[in-house]
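Quick one:
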Amino acid sequence: QVQLEESGGGLVQPGDSLRLSCAARRSIFTFYHMGWYRQAPGKQRELVATITSGTSRNYADSTKGRFTIFSDNAKNTVYLQMNSLEPEDTAVYYCNARIVIPSIRDYWGKGTLVTVSS
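Output:
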């Protein structure tokens, strides 16, 4: 079982910054990739950003240039730095970890709410 614990959500104003954290209870090197997804009210869960093997990063078009995903391997933690937040970024943000051996399996945190509002 993989446990992921998110933190860092909250209420911010448009243009503000926020950093989310996702702590794993085992070495993040054991995962194929880790990432962040989000789900806004009435919408499907969508990709925000992923980091693979600690180096390769992938972002949704809506977050490129504003969000940065990075990891601290010593702390088994992945972060999402969010800058220039917009009301459209309001959602519950979920941490994801994927393994691919012996088969593809995704693990999820419980989520942390980010609200961007003036």
